[in-house]
Amino acid sequence: MKIRMTAITASALCLGLAAAAVAQDNPVATREQMMKQVGASMGALGAIAKGEKPYDAEAVKAALTTISTDMKGFPDHFPAGSEVNSAAAPAIWDNMDDFKAKALKLAGDADTVLASMPADQAGVQESIKTLGANCGTCHQTYRLKR
């Protein structure tokens, strides 16, 4: 179990470092990488919530931490002109304050869930409802349909 968690943590760190390196040159690639990390974290939580994977406190903690961390910095990767070749809707730049607020709400909700740490599958199911609703609200407004 500890080896698995160490591997997950190391992988997340490597992805974070890779994303930081890419961020300097390509904000679109950086934010796409961050969304992949958040999506993978939501997927891990969803698998536990559905009973596809057994409850694993360390995996839950890692997923929630990734969501929180990535969403706190996510809005910083939307400089003017970076909407080209992106799934980001122009509404982001028109409503940057609202976009930032939505990202920070997801981060804050992940922090809240992390602070009370779901103790079982049912707890993860409840947390997914809140986190997933945040994702959906933002995607409806700020993600282009392709």
Secondary structure elements and their pairing?
Blueprint (H helix, E strand, L loop, with lengths): L1 H22 L3 H23 L7 H17 L17 H4 L1 H21 L4 H22 L4
Helix pairs in contact: 1-2, 1-3, 2-3, 2-6, 3-5, 5-6
What does this structure look like?
- There is one protein chain.
- With 146 residues, this protein is mainly alpha-helical.
- The protein has a single domain (2-142), classed as Four Helix Bundle (Hemerythrin (Met), subunit A) (Up-down Bundle), CATH 1.20.120.10.
- Helices cover 75% and strands 0% of the residues.
- The protein has six helices and no strands.
- It has helices at residues 2-23, 27-49, 57-73, 91-94, 96-116, 121-142.
- Helix 1 (2-23) packs antiparallel against helix 2 (27-49), helix 3 (57-73) runs antiparallel to helix 5 and helix 5 packs antiparallel against helix 6 (121-142).
- It is elongated, with a radius of gyration of 15 Å.
- One of its GO terms (molecular function) is heme binding.
- Heme c binds at residues 135, 138-139.
- Pfam families: Cytochrom_C_2.
- Residues 1-23 form the signal peptide.
- This is Cytochrome C556.
Summarize the structure.
With 146 residues, the protein is mainly alpha-helical. The protein contains six helices and no strands. The longest helix has 23 residues, at 27-49.
Question: What characteristics describe this protein?
Answer:
single chain; Four Helix Bundle (Hemerythrin (Met), subunit A); 75% helix
